[in-house]
Design a protein that fits this description.
The complex is a heterodimer of chains A (about 140) and B (about 350). In chain A, strand 4 and strand 5 form a beta hairpin. With about 140 residues, chain A is an alpha+beta fold. Chain A contains three helices and five strands. A five-stranded antiparallel sheet of chain A has the order 1-5-4-3-2. Chain A has a domain of about 100 residues: Ribosomal Protein S8, Chain: A, domain 1 (2-Layer Sandwich), CATH 3.30.1370. In chain B, strands 2-1-3-7-9 form a five-stranded parallel sheet, sandwiched between helices. Chain B has 16 helices and nine strands. Chain B folds into two domains: about 180 residues, Rossmann fold (3-Layer(aba) Sandwich); about 120 residues, Cytochrome-c3 hydrogenase, C-terminal domain (Cytochrome-c3 Hydrogenase, Chain A, domain 2). The longest helix of chain B has about 35 residues. Chain B is globular. In chain B, helix 2 packs across helix 3. Classes of the chains: A alpha+beta (about 140), B alpha/beta (about 350).
């Protein structure tokens, strides 16, 4: 039987990335407006990037246009989330991944600090209880 | 999960932090195609939501819709939606069988009248007394009538339950009809697609959990959040259509460059669904991204709407010429004519008339 390599198959390079949808520049203008609003009235804006038709090349172009800022952090809760401040302070790129590491949601938040980074009072309370229990469990050891 | 706990309490008991919960809400809002400003509203509502009992009825269907639905049940953020409902009756998934299984359905009707949700998969045969599909000696018609009578709402999962689908295709040997032909006095949400996108199914459930109401629907009973735009209007290849760049065969230069598949039979312009933005297989791609025209599977009678590979209308002239001309003329007259033609296209889609070249020109 002939080997696969003996068949006269012509291999073409994969198609180049689809061209741009031209959505990047309007998005950057939207971000500029949101920054003005944040500065003038402390009002935050969230943009759902997955709801806008964009090619992978567009998303890459957008991320390059926004660049990297001072903060790049990871949340580990129901999979990872990456929260990055861009080179424009107050403009954050937020990506939520599930446990299987596939992208669930992708937002641009224009805000002073994304809400999800703050510790919640109920979680603080649960943590306080855990710490108190740990300290009371340790006490007999210290008196020995 | 005990039924008296709210979803928020239940998730906290499972050790899910507020950050995890907010992430779940953000992903859910994105999945429901809601403006991101609604995320705090979704969070507040889901925090307090109590899980409804769900009865999933399987009639003349292939179980493809259930496959699609369970694919979103990975250990993931969407998976939490399944923690938020109590799927009490589903033939393929439930552990018990026979009388025990049917007993559960009867108990739900008795114990939660007016509160449970009914999900229907498949069309219902009416010919010859409905004998072509029966479960436990009851016809599909009798089961649907009995179960829907006391339901809060009915959700038709897939094109068969929504519009009759393949069982209803010509010559319709079993006299198949959609759910809406039978259930007249309850809200019915149609979630068509062959199969529907899993996140659209869970998105509709999430909407019900969040607001306790049914979402805004189009003339075909489909949630506007997911079926409000055509595939064509949200397609990343749309710019090529506007530029008059079309693939003429599956292996020509246009196909390799990812140009518009209109001439290869793409039903994107007359098909309302969320594939182009929500995508399939954990957001990997959708048919057009894989180089195949849209089949129009979320539209009524798509199976009888002619060849999948025939252009919506057979263009008399070279399509690229008129598309270019339309762009040139469009600057002045575009807006008004565009609206008119959009409405005409929508009406044509509803009546399932073929759309002509003239309709698509503007």
């Amino acid at each position: 039987m002939a080997e696969l390599s003996e068949f006269p198959i012509e291999v073409h390079e994969a198609a180049s990335a689809p061209a741009s949808t031209q959505n990047v520049v309007p998005l950057l203008h939207e971000i500029r407006h949101a920054l003005t609003k944040l500065l003038q009235s402390d009002e935050s804006t969230t943009i759902d990037l997955l709801s806008i038709p964009m090619t992978d090349a567009d998303l890459q172009a957008l991320e390059e246009a926004l660049g990297n800022g001072e903060i790049d952090t990871t949340i580990t809760a129901l999979g990872t989330s990456r929260i990055r401040e861009t080179r424009y302070p107050g403009v954050w790129l937020i990506e939520h991944y599930n446990v299987a590491d596939s992208l669930m949601a992708k937002f641009i938040e224009v805000t002073r600090l994304p809400e999800i980074l703050k510790a919640d009072p109920r979680d603080i309370d649960a943590g306080l209880q855990r710490l108190s229990e740990q300290l009371s469990n340790n006490e007999p050891d210290e008196t020995d | 999960m005990p039924k008296d706990l709210t979803l928020g309490e239940h998730l906290r008991r499972q050790g899910i932090s507020r950050r995890g919960f907010l992430k779940f809400c953000a992903a859910t809002a994105s999945m429901m195609a809601m403006p991101p400003g609604m995320i705090p509203v979704v969070a507040a509502a889901l925090e307090k939501a109590r899980r409804p009992s769900v009865v999933y009825l399987s009639f003349q269907e292939c179980t493809g819709c259930l496959e699609s639905l369970t694919r979103s049940h990975s250990p993931s953020v969407e998976g939490l939606i399944f923690d938020a409902i109590s799927l009490d009756y589903q033939h393929t998934l439930q552990a018990c069988a026979g009388h025990f299984a049917e007993h559960i359905r009867e108990e739900i009707i008795k114990q939660h009248p007016g509160e449970y949700l009914v999900l229907v998969d498949g069309s219902i045969p009416l010919k010859d007394g409905g004998q072509y599909s029966t479960i436990a000696g009851m016809t599909n018609l009798a089961i649907l009538e009995e179960t829907a009578a006391h339901a809060a709402a009915v959700i038709s999962i897939g094109t068969c339950a929504s519009f009759g689908g393949i069982p209803k295709a010509h010559p319709n040997p079993t006299g198949a009809v959609p759910v809406t032909d039978i259930v007249k006095n309850k809200p019915v949400i149609n979630v068509p697609g062959c199969p529907p996108i899993p996140t659209v199914i869970t998105g509709v459930l999430a909407h019900y959990l969040t607001f306790g109401t049914i979402p805004e629907l189009d003339d075909f009973g489909r949630p506007l959040a997911f079926y409000g735009d055509t595939i064509h209007d949200r397609c990343y290849r749309r710019p090529f259509y506007d530029q008059g760049k079309f693939a003429k065969t599956f292996d020509d230069e246009g196909a390799r460059k990812g140009w518009c598949l209109f001439e290869l039979g793409c039903k994107g312009p007359t098909t309302y669904n969320a594939c182009a933005t929500t995508k399939w297989n954990q957001g990997t791609s959708f048919p057009i991204e894989s180089g195949h025209p849209c089949l129009g599977c979320s539209e009524p009678d798509f199976w009888d709407a002619g060849s999948f590979y025939e252009a919506l209308s057979a263009p008399a002239a070279d399509v690229s010429k008129w598309a270019g001309a339309a762009i040139a003329a469009g600057a002045v007259a575009g807006a008004g004519i565009g609206l008119k033609s959009m409405r005409k296209r929508k009406e044509a889609a509803q009546a399932h008339d073929p759309v002509t070249v003239d309709d698509l020109k503007t």
